[in-house]
Amino acid sequence: MLNALRIILIETSHSRNIGATARAMKTMGLSDLILVNPQEGIDDQARAMSSNAVDVLESAKIVGSLKEAIADCHYVLGTSARKRYLDWPLITPREAACEANHFVKSNMKVAVIFGRERNGLINEELEQCHAHVHIPANPEYLSLNLAQAVQLIAYELRLAILGSEKYRPKELLASPAQLEGFYNAVEEALLKLNFLEAKAPRKLMPRLRRLFQRVALEEVEVNILRGIFEEIKRKIS
């Protein structure tokens, strides 16, 4: 079950943080690590910080985009330390682990994304997540480093998945690629209807993304909705 959990690090600045993350993951039984455009690769510092988790480092994949990192994932969680220009579903690590448990036990892959050490995840990356995980630390001293955050969330994931026999089966969720195709169809239809202004789109599409990501659409649902918007486009062409 734990093999269905993926940790994704975005543009890490220091290789030692990658090593410390690998150690945190192995301690909790996680092994699937993907690095998106790390500024420093897996070097001697990373290996030293990983202690006896070099195997997690050696099996880690380095990719060029978040889209590639989550391509085969069904449920995606993004970590966020602050509120953004749009309020997204904000859940605690324990709530996130509970949700992840249901998807993993329904044979779906779950990813947790961690952003840059200084700035975290940007809005465009968070828009690709179903929910945002916020660690309710002391607001007067938010000094959690990357590996500590990974350790805390990995612990909650392990506890939820190995400690619970009860879960509600989930239908297969739409893939990131299917969702992007759906969002493109929605945007094109709204442009043709003149409901969305190309030169002044405001926040309409990000708000719609937030709505549909929050719902966690299933494959069948996305196919139905995309079919509706494709038909709209055809009727007004």
Quick tags:
single chain; 237 residues; alpha/beta; Alpha/beta knot; Helicase, Ruva Protein, domain 3; 2 domains; seven-stranded parallel beta sheet; 7 strands
Number of strands: 7
Rg from C-alpha positions? 19 Å
Average of the residue pLDDT scores: 90
Separation of the first and last Cα atoms = 48 Å
List the total number of helices. Answer: 10
Count up the domains.
2
CATH-defined topology of the largest domain: Alpha/beta knot
Structural class based on helices, strands and sheet pairing: alpha/beta
| Envelope shape | globular
Q: Would you list the SSEs in sequence order as H and E?
A: EHEHHEHEEHEHEHHHH
| CATH architecture field of the largest domain | 3-Layer(aba) Sandwich
How much of the sequence is in beta strands?
A: 5-15%
Helical residue percent band: 40-55%
Low-confidence stretches: none
The CATH fourth-level homologous superfamily of the largest domain: SPOUT methyltransferase, trefoil knot domain
CATH class of the largest domain: Alpha Beta
Strand order of the largest sheet: 3-2-1-6-4-7-5
What's the main sheet like? 7 strands, parallel
Structure description:
This protein has ten helices and seven strands. The chain folds into two domains: about 1-160, Alpha/beta knot, CATH 3.40.1280.10; about 175-235, Helicase, Ruva Protein, domain 3 (Orthogonal Bundle). Helix content is about 45%, strand content about 10%. Helix 1 links the parallel strand 1 and strand 2. The longest helix has 18 residues, at about 220-235. It has about 240 residues and is α/β, with parallel strands linked by helices. It has helices spanning about 15-25, 45-50, 55-60, 65-70, 95-105, 125, 145-160, 175-190, 205-215, 220-235, and strands spanning about 5-10, 30-35, 60-65, 75-80, 90, 110-115, 130-135. Strands 3-2-1-6-4-7-5 form a seven-stranded parallel β-sheet.
